[in-house]
Amino acid sequence: MNYPLYIRSAPTENELKFHYMVHTSLDVVDEKISAMGKALVDQRELYLGLLYPTEDYKVYGYVTNSKVKFVMVVDSSNTALRDNEIRSMFRKLHNSYTDVMCNPFYNPGDRIQSRAFDSMVTSMMIQVC
Amino acid sequence: MADEALFLLLHNEMVSGLYKSAEQGEVENGRCITKLENMGFRVGQGLIERFTKDTARFKDELDIMKFICKDFWTTVFKKQIDNLRTNHQGIYVLQDNKFRLLTQMSAGKQYLEHASKYLAFTCGLIRGGLSNLGIKSIVTAEVSSMPACKFQVMIQKL
Lengths: 129, 158
What we know:
The complex is a heterodimer.
Chain A: H1 15-38, E1 47-53, E2 57-63, E3 69-75, H2 83-101, H3 115-128
Antiparallel strand pairs in A: 1-2, 2-3
Chain B: H1 4-23, H2 31-51, H3 61-77, E1 83-86, E2 91-96, H4 115-132, E3 137-145, E4 148-155
Antiparallel strand pairs in B: 1-2, 2-4, 3-4
Helix pairs in contact in B: 2-4
């Protein structure tokens, strides 16, 4: 059962398209995770890499040990964005999520409403776009 | 990490504070253990998020239980679980021969009847930690002679 704890997009027009892409990518994430369990290669990283490329976008995934999935959709034309930059963006998201978990005003499973989390995401998106 | 005495003393105050409110009629007596367990649950959720931030992905259920017995227990109680037993069918027994929250209490049978109050929070801690890793469980504890105790984890297959 998957439902979003947090979703942000820029530009905000056609937001539904991004929501839909993220939703379909969840299947790919689940595939990758179950494949990892049976794989001979000991791939135990949290970062999943490129999930699938479309014409206009690239979708990246990351799953924590606590089964929280992070999905990032990036414009294909943004060729300057390197793999290690994507990794560090996911690390930042994971670190901020951990802080949210430890916030007494956050009830696990609720939508994330932390302003600190919001501003971290904003600054990340500004850097990329 | 803070000195372990801080958590130990704070935990003791939590238990006695909760039971004092129960005496004054603010909280039903039977609810105290549940409240302590629920507190432990939420703490366990947050703790496990922090502790697994930099670890590799867990392979399976046993991997997770070993993590609880070694890394998790060491970070919280400065020692590992002494013995882990399982029937490989979803029941695990974690044995701590010198449980940190009981060592200051007694070295045998004295105060045995109060032990369960001081174990509730830790039961919740384990349950909360497992819950955040995707495992639903029921955790109970038993003491026959302090400070040794056993935590029994029953995995609930969804």
